[in-house]
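Quick note —
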Amino acid sequence: MLSCLVPPSISDPPVDTTVSQGDTVTIRCVAHGAPNPVISWIKDSVHLSDDNVHYDVSSSGTLTIRDVSKGDEGRYRCAARNSVGSVSTQMRLTVRGEDFIN
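Predicted structure written out below.
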């Protein structure tokens, strides 16, 4: 029996998103391949992990950011990797905030 090895491809890439400070945002990144690729998220060269309660990276590749702040603004990269190869794509998160304090 032949095994079929397929490098990852991103079928549902993340899109540029604008949110308000304090919101929760969910950003999808769906990849396919054989074996199934592992998806990771990178912001400013730092891998985001579940160790930080601010971020949640699901096994399906969805990134959730809770209580968004201006510090979360920037470019995020979704990377999919398996034993055959890797692929990545980027999106930009823009955070709307108050210009003044009430």
